[in-house]
Amino acid sequence: MRRPALLPAPSTWRALGQTLFLLLFLTLFVTTDYAGVDELNWAVNLLFRIDPFLAAAAMLAARAVIALMLPALLTLGLTLLFGRFFCGWVCPMGSLIDASRRLVGRATTTLPQPGRRHLKYLLLLFLLTAACLGLPLAGYLDPFSLLVRGLTFSVQPALDHAATILFTWTYQQAPDWVNAVTEPAYALLKRSILPFSAKIYNLSVLSLFLLLAVLGLSRLEPRFFCRKVCPLGALLALTARFSLFRLRGGSAECGRCTQCRLVCPMAAIGESREIATAECTLCLDCVSHCPRSRIGYGLKRVAAANGQAATNGQTANLSRRAILASLAAGALAPLALPSRPLARHGDPQLIRPPGALAEPDFLDLCLRCGECMKVCIGNALHATWLEAGLEGVFTPRLIGRLGYCEYNCTLCGQVCPSGAIRKLGRIDKQAVIIGRAHFDKNRCLPYASGTPCIVCEEHCPTPDKAIKFREIETENSKGERVLVRQPYVVDDLCIGCGICENKCPLDGAAAILVTSAGESRHRHLFRQDGY
Fold first, then answer.
1. Are 101 and 222 in contact (CB under 8 A)?
2. Quick one: CATH architecture of 436-515?
């Protein structure tokens, strides 16, 4: 029976669903920011917590059940029931890939080929095996992590910078009647879309490149990343093989018609019109384009009753040799890839956020999502490059010259979706030591030239100042004998927040530097309940 002409096509409903979920994601994304209070009611970390791939990788790495990520079971349960709907309806990366395909893709005139879609399964095996044996790499290829990092490090700061330039120009150069419109518009943007304060990030270009690469691959083939690379898609595909509801394809009666195969972005429809449930993302394009309405959605037993075998098209075509090779690579990678020459003594520049677990546990649980860096009020947290080895790329570290850890802020622990940064109360957070400050006496003005300066002490936030003074008679740069207050750090009071380094008035490197020396993150400092 044909669909009544007045009803929207099934693919239209799917496009509407994609739009709504994408708007939800973007709403959560812009809401994940400091807004004048130290509490977040909503955060985009909700989406990371329903990602079963990240949940599996983190739990294997931690060798424990992570309560924060148990909602991922809901995604697997719904996939067992309805099929791989998450990729086609919910995933914001998938929605952006489809949108980019419409913008930069080329028209498809040949039948899509399934080729090499087994690669994502091999990647999944490799990443989960490596995580289990101590090399956490899952956050590098997870679609949510790729998307949020690209938006956080590059897209949102670029939009903020462009808006600031535009509205500054109109404020300074445009007539009053223009400002009567632009100033309220800018205020609205600051309240709704733009970040609370302007920020810059390390690895912003790399993060943008990776995001654009994922989107740009759709020019080669529709949903290239989803078909051949995405490990989350691979896990959901394996689950969808056993789904209760699924699409049933046409039959030999379809003759030479290839409309369904031509429009399928996942190449999930075979020559005999069987539909590979594991690969089908329920985009419903085939349903909308079938001229005889031979494709329908129903119970698995209904599909079998219509002549379609329950296992048609379900195999991932993985050879035993390929599986063993992927498992072996995942097992050997932790022995060959970690590259931390200072691991024994600790890199003094590697300062983790307050509440971060001990380094091995932190690396195992960190999803490389960038959430903590996004909410950091002082723009202190930035992506690590190779300071923590290959396994530490994109994890957060404090760079005092670029920003500082706000004394009363606890946002980073609130948004961490995996517990790599523990959620701390304000009093507990203020007691955590993430490093120590020390003076470079060759650059500090009171030491190097006898010039008075008390900026670092003025900004020190601890109730009993961690920076104090000694009055010393010395010779200044003019050769005069002067009495100068020379600062020094009381180690027992310093928490390593970095504000002294950030506010140091010298150009270039600061005269007071914060290192990870004395950090207090050890297993016994944090309760392990919830794991």
1. yes
2. 2-Layer Sandwich (3.30)
Q: What is the pLDDT of residues 143-187, one digit of tens each?
A: 999 999 999 999 999 999 999 999 999 999 989 898 899 999 998
**329, 126 Cβ separation under 8 angstroms:** yes
DSSP 254: G
Q: What is the pTM of this model?
A: 0.88
What three-state secondary structure class fits 472? strand
Amino acid code (one letter) for 72: A
What are the structure tokens assigned to 53, written together?
């791939």
Rounded CA separation 53/226 (Å) = 14
Distance CA 56, CA 67 (A): 12
> Can you give the residue ranges of every domain in the chain?
10-144+218-305, 146-210, 436-515
If we measure between CA atoms, which residue out of 153, 124, 121, 148 comes closest to residue 49? 148
Q: How many other CB atoms are found less than 10 A from the CB of residue 349?
A: 17
Nearest Cα to Cα of residue 411 among 383, 374, 368, 384: 374
- Residue 2: how many CB atoms within 10 A of its CB? 8
**Among 107, 23, 18, residue whose Cα is nearest residue 10:** 18
Q: Compute the residue count for the chain.
A: 531
CA distances from 222 to 148, 277, 391, 474 (A): 22, 18, 31, 72
E strand residue ranges, 391-516: 396-398, 436-439, 467-475, 481-489, 512-515
